[in-house]
Amino acid sequence: MKVKTITKERILLEGTSALIKRLGYANAARFISLLGGKGDMVLEIREKRESESIGEVVKRIRSKSGS
Amino acid sequence: MRIAEETMAFISILELAESREVSIVNSDVLEDEIEEILNQEKRSEIQMLMTICENFIELSDVIIELAKELQKNCNLSGGDALHLACACNSSQFFLTCDDFILEKIKCIEGTIKRKGNILKVEKPIDFIEEKHES
After folding, report:
1. Residue A23 at interface with chain B, using a CB cutoff of 8 Å
2. Which residue of B24, B48, B70, B77 is most buried, as measured by CB atoms within 10 A?
3. CB-hemisphere CA count at 13 Å for B72?
4. CB–CB of A16 and B10 under 8 A?
5. Domain assignments of chain B as residue spans, ordered by start
6. Pairing state of beta strands B120-122 and B55-57?
7. Predicted model pTM
8. pLDDT less than 70: residues of chain B
9. What is the ipTM of this complex?
10. Under an 8 A CB cutoff, do B98 and A46 touch?
11. B81, closest residue in chain A (CA to CA)
12. What does the pLDDT average to over A25-29?
């Protein structure tokens, strides 16, 4: 029997997309906030930003785009 | 408490974007930052919510040069400077909850003004309050 698998990342993207289609962007965000979450994204992003130079960010972006 | 208020402001901005009263701008720099979020659940949610953006700013040499100037003048991190430089040519407002950027508003807005552009940097909650008052 063939079992069709879907990655965790794919199901999270599809699930959020379905939520947005059903509720709209603002209400989807409202729903996600009601589910709660751990941590402070602003602090997490701040730590990452502090550790990188302009050159490092630019290099990573350009390597992704292939330019 | 603060995170709850910021979340409500973010939701209000999404409502304004849905009713086309504001337009949210995405960029190479923002997409890169989102891709670097380690928590898969948070990353996926943000990636999908960002599909509301109608405009996209690609990284360019002009943006990199402005970012370097902002970093030098205002002592910003590389990422902060790149985000602000991306917003400079495309947006009227740069909304952030990040105190490290908010405490340098005067320097940032001044540097951008000297380049011939106007960008207002503020907290999402202040933007929403001003929008409701107008």
Report:
1. no
2. B70
3. 8
4. no
5. 2-133
6. unpaired
7. 0.89
8. none
9. 0.87
10. yes
11. A54
12. 96
CA B39-B41-B43 angle, to 5 degrees, is 65
d(CA B31, CA B75): 23
Domain coordinates in residue numbering, chain A: 8-65
- List the single best residue of A13, A34, A50, A54 to mutate versus B (max B Cβ within 10 A): A54
Check: CB of residue B63 under 8 Å from CB of residue B86: yes
| Range B2-133: architecture per CATH | 3-Layer(aba) Sandwich (3.40)
How many percent of chain A have pLDDT more than 70?
A: 90
A53 to chain B, closest Cα gap in Å: 5
Compute the distance between CA of residue B74 and CA of residue A50 in angstroms, rounded to an integer.
14
Closest Cβ–Cβ partner in A8, A25, A62 for B49: A25
